[in-house]
Amino acid sequence: WAATKLAPGRMTQALLATNPALVAAAPPAEQQRVAAILAHILPVSRRAAGLIDDTTWAGAPPPYPLERISAPTIAVSFEDDLYGTYAAAKYASERVQHGTLVSYPTGGHVWVGHDAEVWSAVAAFLSAHAE
Is the predicted pLDDT of residue 58 greater than 70, yes or no? Predict the structure, then answer.
């Protein structure tokens, strides 16, 4: 908790895998959204296993037979995500039979500046694949 108050930029970079300068340049509402994400990630000890998984698998996932997945699949990622999820998201979306990639050059792991766009893309994807 103290680190989020004393060094929020470092915590944003370390825990949210997002460039703090990107957050600083965002509109106030977006800064508040990111601050809320940072506040709700605490205590980190409860999320340690998940955070370790994120950093282990996001940038270099093991090979899976993704072409066998026939369900429509959406992957959302940002090229500047400090967890390195972009390459894996692109790889997966290209190999899944009905894969879709939603990506942006900037936004970090918490998609700074693209919240409405991401949810709109997810809604459109779900609507397009509704039965």
Answer: no
DSSP for the chain reads: -HHHHH-HHHHHHHHH---HHHHHTS-HHHHHHHHHHHHHT-SGGGGHHHHHHHHHHSSSPPP--GGG--S-EEEEEETT-TT-HHHHHHHHHHHSTTEEEEEESS-TTTTTT-HHHHHHHHHHHHHHT--
Distance CA 57, CA 16 (A): 16
How many residues appear in the chain? 131
pLDDT tens, residue by residue, 18-52: 999 999 999 999 999 999 998 888 777 777 787 77
Half-sphere exposure of 13 (CA within 13 A, CB side): 8
Q: Which two tokens stand for residue 35?
A: 């601050």
Q: How far apart are CA 38 and CA 1, in angstroms?
A: 10
Backbone angles phi, psi at 103, to 5 degrees: -145, 160
d(C-alpha 105, C-alpha 90), whole Å: 13
